[in-house]
Design brief:
Helix content is 15%, strand content 34%. By secondary structure, it is of the alpha+beta class. Strands 4, 5, 6, 9, 11, 12, 13, 14 and 18 form a 9-stranded mixed β-sheet that branches. Strands 3, 7, 8, 10, 15, 16, 17 and 19 form an 8-stranded antiparallel β-sheet that branches. It has a 3-stranded mixed β-sheet with strand order 2-1-20, with no helix packed on it. A hairpin with a 2-residue loop joins β16 and β17. The longest helix is centred in the C-terminal third of the chain and has 19 residues.
C-alpha cells in the first residue's frame, strides 16, 4: 500500500507541475497586437555598457559623405554611463553629477575646416527586430547645433526616425522631426523633407527641460509616433520598412545649417534613462523558442499587456516606470541584459525550468520506482 501511495503522490506532482506556467510566455501586447520578444534597458541603474544589451559604435564619415562642412567621428568615449547612486532611487544626480542615465555626447568647439565632430551612438546587439513597439526616456540638449535621434535602422532606405534638432528649440517652438527614410527619400537626395513620410510636429513641452518618453509602434502597414503616451502621427504607405534591423540612439553634428547646425559651442549631452522594446524576431531559433514556450496562447496570463505611461518619466514616482524584467516570472526565455541590479533574472538569459523537462524527469523516476516495487 505505501508503494502505491508514493506512486500516486508522484504522478500528482507530475500533473501539477505540467500545468504551472510562467507569465507572459506567449508575449506582450500593445493595442491588441502580440509581440514575442522584448529588450529592456534601465540606464538609471546600469553601470557597465557591456552588460546593457547596447554596443557603442565606432566609425567615421567624411564631410562629403556626411553631407555637411564637417565629418562625423563616433567613438565609445562619447558614451558615458552615469547611474543613480542607489538602486532604490529613481531620480536625482548620477554618480558623476548631473542627470542620471546613459549620456550621449557631441563635443563642442570648432573642429577646423573639413574637421571631424566627435559624437556618440548606441546600437542594440539585437539585429533581428521586425515590427514592434519601442520607447525611450530621453532628455535632449538645450545647446544649439546637434541632432539627437531615437530610431530603428536597417539601411538608408529602411529607417524609422524621431529626430530633434536643438537649433530649432526656442521659447515658442519645440519640434520633433518624424521620418520614414525610404526609396523616395533616396530619390530626393536623402532629403525626406520632400516626401510624404516626413512631418515636423510641435511638442507641448521643452524636450531639453526634462525627461519625456518618445515612442514609435511599427506594424506591417503603418508606423505610429508618440510622445508621453500621446499619439502624434500615423504614417503608412510604401515607406514602412519590411525587413529586420536594430534600434539606435545617437547625437551628432556635421555643421549642416539646414539640419543639425553646429557644432555646439560646448559639449552637448543627450541623456537616456531607459529604452524598452517589444517586438517580433526574424531569427528562426527565437521563433522556435516562442513555439516551444507558448503552448496555449489563450491560457490565463499567457500574454501580458504593456503598460502605458501616464506622466513624463521624471521624479521619483513617474520615473519608476514598469519593467517586465524587474518582475518575478515575466521574462521566460527572453534575452535580458545582466548589468541592471534591479533585474530579477540573472545572467544574459532569463532562466526557467522547463515544465516539459520536469515532466520527463518525473516520468522516468516513476518508471524506475515502479520496476523496483513490482513483484
Amino acid at each position: 500500500m505505501p508503494h502505491f501511495m508514493r506512486l500516486f503522490s508522484l504522478f500528482s506532482s507530475i500533473l501539477l507541475i505540467s500545468t504551472v506556467r510562467a507569465d507572459c510566455e506567449c508575449g506582450y501586447t500593445v493595442n491588441g497586437t502580440l509581440f514575442t520578444d522584448l529588450t529592456e534597458s534601465d540606464f538609471l541603474h546600469i553601470k557597465n555598457i557591456n552588460e546593457s544589451g547596447w554596443i557603442p559604435q565606432t566609425y567615421t564619415v567624411d564631410p562629403e559623405l556626411s553631407r555637411g562642412p564637417y565629418g562625423k567621428d563616433a567613438s565609445p568615449d562619447q558614451i558615458v554611463l552615469n547611474p543613480l547612486k542607489s538602486r532604490y532611487d529613481w531620480t536625482g544626480d548620477g554618480i558623476k553629477g548631473g542627470d542620471a542615465g546613459a549620456q550621449i555626447l557631441v563635443r563642442g568647439g570648432d573642429p577646423g575646416e573639413g574637421g571631424m565632430i566627435r559624437m556618440g551612438e548606441l546600437d542594440t546587439n539585437r539585429t533581428d527586430i521586425l515590427y514592434g513597439s519601442f520607447r525611450a526616456g530621453i532628455k535632449l540638449t538645450g545647446l544649439p547645433g546637434t541632432c539627437g535621434a531615437f530610431f530603428w535602422y536597417l539601411n538608408d532606405t529602411q529607417e524609422i526616425d524621431m529626430e530633434f534638432l536643438s537649433s530649432q528649440f526656442n521659447a515658442t517652438s519645440h519640434p520633433v522631426n518624424l521620418v520614414l527614410q525610404s526609396q523616395k527619400s533616396l530619390a530626393a537626395g536623402f532629403n525626406a523633407h520632400d516626401t510624404d513620410s516626413f512631418q515636423v510636429h510641435q511638442l507641448p513641452f521643452d524636450p531639453s527641460g526634462g525627461f519625456h518618453e518618445y515612442r514609435f509602434d511599427w506594424f506591417r502597414d503603418h508606423v505610429d509616433f508618440y510622445a508621453d503616451g500621446v499619439l502624434l502621427k500615423t504614417m503608412s504607405g510604401d515607406g514602412v520598412p519590411s525587413d529586420p534591423g536594430h534600434l539606435a540612439l545617437s547625437q551628432w553634428s556635421n555643421g549642416d545649417p539646414m539640419w543639425s547646425g553646429g557644432p555646439p559651442a560646448e559639449d552637448a549631452v543627450m541623456t537616456v534613462s531607459y529604452v524598452k522594446g517589444y517586438f517580433n524576431s526574424s531569427d528562426t531559433a527565437r521563433q522556435d523558442d516562442w513555439r516551444d514556450r507558448c503552448t496555449d496562447i489563450n491560457a490565463p496570463k499567457a500574454t501580458c499587456e504593456v503598460p502605458e505611461i501616464t506622466a513624463p518619466p521624471q521624479g521619483n514616482v513617474s520615473a519608476n516606470t514598469f519593467f517586465f524584467s524587474q518582475q518575478q516570472n515575466m521574462t521566460v526565455n527572453q534575452s535580458i541584459p545582466s548589468g541592471n541590479p534591479n533585474t530579477v533574472t540573472s545572467g544574459a538569459w532569463s532562466v526557467q525550468a522547463s515544465t516539459q523537462g520536469i515532466f520527463t524527469i518525473l516520468l522516468l523516476s516513476s518508471f524506475v520506482l515502479l520496476t523496483e516495487w513490482w513483484p
